[in-house]
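Hypothesis: this fold can be encoded by more than one sequence.
Test: take the structure tokens below, design a sequence, compare later.
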């Protein structure tokens, strides 16, 4: 049974105006930690598939538990919603909305959040998080904007051939920290682009990132390509990046 203390939390809904996205705005849900105080400043986690991270990943509950029970420094979570019908177009590097989406993220969403909330603005206090294509688009955001993002949480990242080619073409990545997990039962997962072995995709991406000197945490464990697996991993993943006070 969930401790009731974990359910008393503040989640604010916002809409970011955009000149880069055709719909001209994007919805956010923002978790403010227990005791949030505008005078202080907080690390921030930016989640792709924001609605799923909150509803299926229960990230706000996990964050509250980590802060209250395990002494993690309080942090803010920004969940960025996505229209599932447009998700591949935005998240995949060869998608027709991808270039504008990552520009929106860096040039419109980031300033919007930083003007309104007490988030830290140093790259080492920003974390990009995503599952499947959300994991790979988080990595591509960091590779495109290394002065903004240096830390990526990748849950079963969809590192298709084009993503592997982008990593291969990158220079030295010793500035980048990537937390990667993949489930061993993800070896034949059906996507909108065909059936893929996500274990192999992640092993290949790991090898390429290591060649470029990126700092990696990598783990394979029992799990399927679904939130039932990722939800259980969020506590460990967040604890890897957020320090104990």
């Amino acid at each position: 049974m969930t401790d009731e203390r974990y359910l008393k939390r503040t989640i604010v809904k916002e809409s970011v105006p955009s000149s880069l996205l055709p719909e001209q705005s994007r919805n956010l849900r923002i978790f403010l930690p227990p005791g949030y105080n505008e005078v202080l400043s907080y690390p921030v986690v930016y989640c792709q598939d924001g609605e799923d991270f909150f509803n299926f990943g229960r990230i706000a509950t996990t964050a509250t538990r980590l802060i209250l029970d395990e002494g993690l420094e309080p942090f803010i979570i920004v969940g960025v919603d996505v229209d599932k019908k447009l998700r591949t177009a935005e998240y995949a590097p060869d998608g027709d909305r991808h270039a504008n989406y990552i520009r929106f993220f860096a040039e419109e969403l980031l300033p919007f959040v930083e003007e309104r909330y007490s988030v830290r603005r140093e790259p080492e206090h920003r974390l990009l998080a995503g599952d499947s294509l959300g994991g790979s688009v988080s990595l591509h955001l960091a590779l495109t904007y290394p002065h903004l993002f240096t830390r990526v949480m990748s849950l079963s990242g969809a590192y298709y051939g084009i993503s592997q080619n982008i990593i291969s073409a990158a220079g030295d990545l010793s500035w980048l920290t990537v937390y990667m997990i993949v489930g061993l039962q993800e070896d034949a997962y059906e996507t909108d682009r065909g059936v893929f072995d996500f274990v192999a995709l992640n092993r290949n991406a790991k090898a390429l990132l290591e060649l470029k000197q990126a700092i990696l945490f990598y783990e394979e464990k029992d799990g399927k390509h679904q939130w039932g697996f990722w939800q259980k991993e969020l506590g460990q993943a967040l604890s890897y990046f957020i320090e104990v006070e």
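The chain has a mean pLDDT of 96. The helical segments are 50-55, 59-69, 87-91, 98-116, 133-144, 161-169, 198-211, 227-241.
Hypothesis status: open.
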